[in-house]
Amino acid sequence: MKRVGVYGGTFDPFHNAHLRLARALRDELALDEVRLIPAGRPYHRDSGPHADAEQRLAMVRLGIAGETGLTADAREVVSARNAYTVETLEALRAELGQDTELWCLIGSDSLEHLDRWHRWRELFALANLAVAIRPGFDAARLAPAVRAEWDARQVSDFSNRTPCGTIRALALTPVALSATEIRRRLAAGDDVADCVPEAVAAHIRRLGLYRPA
């Protein structure tokens, strides 16, 4: 059975915490491949990304170059419409087949609002959920419908791996690294070599991304 992870995000810019989480998803769940999917038009954000979709895709590709099992997936970047997670998973499931073990990574902050996602209950018929737990997460704060899924679907081992339908909390402790703060530092002309992969830093410098107009 092939095992594939899906890691979607704005990646504005792609930074070291993104790379660390992609590696953890691959390693903790023993996946063959993790597909990082930059959002083309993030429907859940009040304002659009600061770098355009092609630039963000390029940063992901540069940031994961040479990483075993990590690939960039451009499907949402080239799409002419907003892409909902459930629709991306439907497309992946159709491509990969029903027997592939598919994992979709979300943060615990997103889990708290999962019941507001488009066709959220259908996610479990398409993939397993890997949850990156943020500091301060409390399952008691989950909406009742989401809490019921959280309680019923969690797995702590892989004695019975399945293509979809389970939830696993990642053991990785998140690091305090924010894309917002990185953009602020870049706008101020500061060096961010400590925050982003070297190739991404060079790309940002070359194009002058995130600098004031």
TrEMBL record:
GO molecular function, one term: nicotinate-nucleotide adenylyltransferase activity
Keywords carried by this UniProt record: ATP-binding, NAD, Nucleotide-binding, Nucleotidyltransferase, Pyridine nucleotide biosynthesis, Transferase
Domain Cytidyltransferase-like: residue ranges: 6-185
Residue stretches spanning the membrane: none
One Pfam family from the record: CTP_transf_like
Enzyme Commission code: 2.7.7.18
InterPro entries reported in the protein's UniProt record: Cyt_trans-like (IPR004821), NadD/NMNAT (IPR005248), Rossmann-like_a/b/a_fold (IPR014729)
Highest taxon listed in the record's lineage: Bacteria
Biochemical pathway: Cofactor biosynthesis; NAD(+) biosynthesis; deamido-NAD(+) from nicotinate D-ribonucleotide: step 1/1
A GO BP entry: NAD+ biosynthetic process
Family of the protein in this entry: Belongs to the NadD family.
Known role: Catalyzes the reversible adenylation of nicotinate mononucleotide (NaMN) to nicotinic acid adenine dinucleotide (NaAD).
Protein name: Probable nicotinate-nucleotide adenylyltransferase
Gene: nadD
